[in-house]
Amino acid sequence: MKTNPLYHMKNKLLAANWKSNKTKFEAKDWLVEISNYEFPEGVEVILFPPSTLLDVVSGYVRVNSMPFKIGAQDVSPFGPGAYTGEVSAEQIKEFADYVLIGHLERRVNFSESTDMIIKKIDRAISVGLTPIVCVSELKELSGLSSSRIVVAYEPISAIGTGEAMDPNLVEDFSKEIKKINIQNVIYGGSVNSENVKNYLSLPSVDGLLVGGQSLDPKSFADLIKNAV
Length: 228
Ligand code: PGA
Known about the structure:
With 228 residues, the protein is an alpha/beta fold. Helices cover 31% and strands 18% of the residues. It has helices spanning 24-34, 54-63, 89-93, 104-109, 114-126, 167-178, 196-200, 217-225; strands spanning 12-17, 43-48, 68-72, 98-101, 130-135, 150-153, 184-188, 207-210.
């Protein structure tokens, strides 16, 4: 039986989604610079580099005993085989423990359907990856009732806009999500070092998904420092 690292999550999860940013050298510079900062107890930081960097980032983190977990930004809905351009769950599992699934940018730019997202979740779970499934609306929760996934609530109006969602609304939405047997809910959308506490102090929010503010090591280190 493969273990799922989030079944009894005590720490606040901080996920850094680099999207299609950074070359190998830029990623190494980021890792070197962030190692100058101390991090508080009580947070679990997961880096989501692009798939080209999973090997180098996970290797660097391991060799230098850095306090980071690794995740991929997407996974193939198929197993290993003749699926040109796809990266299978088995390939990701060599480097990572987590995977983002159904990010808004994939739903919009690559027409990802609920069916496709459910296939990806099944594939991820089958190899022991923890899926972090992104939803922007309650209707996207359909078919997602599972204690084995984390749900990231990411309102469309907040992603990459600098207009983070009202924390009261985030709490209401997170509570709704937990009613369907989801144990861990995180929030994403314009999180920064100033507003991080507003979300992490919410009773139903277990962590944050950070995009833009994770690209610069100092901004991300400030955000982590203010998290607890
Ligand atoms: P943002 O992105 O922090 O830049 O708003 C969040 C996300 O897309 O996951």
